[in-house]
Amino acid sequence: MGCFIIAEAGVNHNGDLKLAKKLVDIAVEAKCDAVKFQTFKAELGLTKSARKAAYQVENTGQDGTQYEMVKKLELNETDHIELISYCKGKKILFLSTPFDKESVDLLHRLDVAMFKVASGEITNKPLLKYIAKKEKPIILSTGMSTLGEVEEALEWIYQENNRQVTLLHCTSSYPTQMIDVNLKAMETLKNAFQVDVGYSDHTLGIEIPTAAVALGAKIIEKHITLNKEMEGPDHKASLEPHELKQMVAAIRNVEAALGNGIKKVADGEKDTLIVARKSIVAKRRIKQGEVVTEEMLCVKRPGNGISPKNIGQVVGLKAKANIEEDTLITLKDFW
């Protein structure tokens, strides 16, 4: 099975259900496996005075609190039902990240296939254990965390007899600078906890998620938008439709190129093999009855004669008839 690609619509619908459906369309057209939103009640997850993150201020301005910004981005239960139905009609998996217990219950009631947990919740023991009790697969992002904190989060989940966890390496800055990606940490997570791993990307462009697949990512998550210039906190670090298509195509190309690991002659190089390899050739005219020495032979293209590695099998043989100069040698030429 190939890498599972999640188009992270997040809150880039700006609270507009019509826009949310357009984001689903983008994911479908790019051939993503799932499209993911966020499920939350602002009053359950933020104090009224919670400040915006620096990137949110940069993208939405100084005015207002994080609560006021987030409140406008909520999707209600009716919205969720309509989006899930829309995704089913488009044959793409609907996913969402819950940020509070009520949202977990809503998604569970609506029969989501799995839970995606945001990086900011990795120390939220009550929420992690609550999600784990639902007995569904969990995709856990690990931005802003240490290896010890990831271990602790896994222990809380495992305590609820749920071991269906995939860890996503992530850097929670928007956009993430290349120096901060630390992609090898994904392999560290895999080796440390013996679980499947993936990568949730916030860099600009598509190079890093593509590289993550080459390093063994089972899941790739990437933010999407209709237009990076739209108002909202996450648009600038998201992919526009044409970029999403490019990323999916690049990932599928990398998967095809990784192959099965068996070193063999590829079908596409069989013709080149004959042209590029060399054979044993008569360096001069070899007369009938002559016993062949290595000095009478040379090695030239093409490679459809006797391989140079078998030159020892030719030396010492007697020519049945004259062999002209620059002629490929065959064993039928000798007694």
Secondary structure blueprint with pairings:
Elements: E1 4-10, H1 17-29, E2 34-39, H2 42-45, H3 54-60, H4 66-71, H5 77-90, E3 93-98, H6 101-109, E4 115-117, H7 125-132, E5 138-141, H8 147-159, E6 165-170, H9 184-193, E7 196-201, H10 207-214, E8 219-223, H11 241-258, H12 270-276, E9 279-282, E10 297-300, H13 311-314
Parallel strand pairs: 1-2, 1-8, 2-3, 4-5, 5-6, 6-7, 7-8
Antiparallel strand pairs: 9-10
**Biggest sheet details:** 8 strands, parallel
What best-fitting shape do the alpha-carbon axes yield? elongated
What spatial order of strands do you see in the largest sheet?
3-2-1-8-7-6-5-4
CATH superfamily of the largest domain: Aldolase class I
- Kindly provide the name of the CATH class of the largest domain: Alpha Beta
**How helix-rich are the residues, as a percent range?**
25-40%
Number of domains: 2
Name the structural class: alpha/beta
Strand content: 15-25%
pLDDT averaged residue by residue: 95
The CATH architecture designation of the largest domain is Alpha-Beta Barrel
Which stretches are low in confidence, meaning pLDDT under 50 for 5 or more residues running? Answer: none
Radius of gyration computed on alpha carbons: 30 Å
Number of strands: 10
Helix-strand topology string: EHEHHHHEHEHEHEHEHEHHEEH
Question: What distance separates the N and C termini?
Answer: 56 Å
What is the overall number of helices? 13
CATH fold label of the largest domain: TIM Barrel
